[in-house]
Write a structure and sequence with these properties.
single chain, alpha/beta, Metallo-beta-lactamase, Chain A, 7 helices, 26% strand, disordered N terminus, binds zinc ion
Length: 263
């Protein structure tokens, strides 16, 4: 894993907060039967002015507490999660005061990304306007796991349109603090309004679920996993754009490796 040595972003840490297990033969045509654990990875960065920033929050025990929806989700996507995997617990173990986290950036609102939000009841939430719209429009009803994000989140949300030019050719987004250190990058396709986070100083791009694991890019996805994507064609377009980024360290929520295209 890369560690930040840049002038603005001081530290970068990754935490695995539970995982799901899937058989690759169920996901991709022509793949042999092979079970893989897909970690729910969270990134923590430190900004000298804005302090600690979490990108996504992993799973929580609440993923199992939503009745029939939880049962079905676990059947299709078996989850392993222990209490000590919660991002809040892991920060405490790391001697980081969880309430000192200034901002949580949510790439999108799937359960393996929002699970820990409930445990940070006062933290500012950053997301795309599309994600905010899902929360506002429905009063959380449209979210798969409305019990995870907690009550009264709307007042804490700052939402961005992700329409500006960015340092990444072909991608639009927003300079979060206006100092060029943290860019929110639009990554449509997997989920409505998904975003990623790019740190130019270390050329690190956290892409959420833009693709689960870059090792499986070339495989032909089966019908059901395609249908899980918000828009499969846009999903593939975004992957195509990711493949054009040279020298950028790309890390996904669920992939095991940092992926760098050759210069
Ligand atoms: Zn997702």
């Amino acid at each position: 894993m890369p560690h930040g040595t840049g002038k603005i972003i001081r530290n970068i840490k990754f935490y695995n907060c539970g995982f799901c297990t899937n058989n690759l033969s169920h996901m991709f045509k022509g793949h042999s039967s092979q079970k893989v654990d897909f970690q729910a990875r969270v990134m923590l960065i430190e900004h000298p002015v804005h302090g600690l920033i979490l990108i996504d929050t992993g799973y929580s025990h609440r993923v199992r507490q939503n009745g029939l929806v939880s049962w079905l989700y676990n059947r299709l996507n078996p989850i392993t999660f222990n209490p000590e995997d919660a991002i809040r617990s892991q920060l405490v173990r790391d001697k980081i005061e969880p309430d000192s986290v200034h901002t949580i950036i949510l790439t999108h609102l799937h359960p393996d990304h929002i699970g820990g939000v409930y445990d940070f009841p006062h933290t500012k939430l950053v997301m795309s306007v599309e994600s905010e719209g899902l929360i506002k429009k429905s009063g959380l009803r449209d979210m798969i796991f409305k019990n995870q994000i907690g009550p009264d989140v709307q007042e804490r949300i700052t939402a961005y349109t992700l329409e500006n030019k960015t340092p990444l050719t072909g991608f639009s987004g927003e300079d979060l603090y206006g100092d060029g250190s943290v860019w929110l990058i639009g990554l449509p396709g997997h989920a409505h309004g998904q975003l990623g986070v790019y740190l130019p100083e270390v050329q690190l791009f956290y892409i959420g679920d833009a693709v689960w694991d870059l090792n499986y890019l070339i495989k032909d996805m089966r019908y059901f996993p395609r249908k899980v994507q918000n828009d499969y064609n846009t999903y593939m377009d975004t992957i195509g754009k990711l493949q054009t980024l040279k020298g950028v360290q790309i890390i996904s929520t669920h992939g095991d490796e940092v992926y760098i295209h050759a210069e």
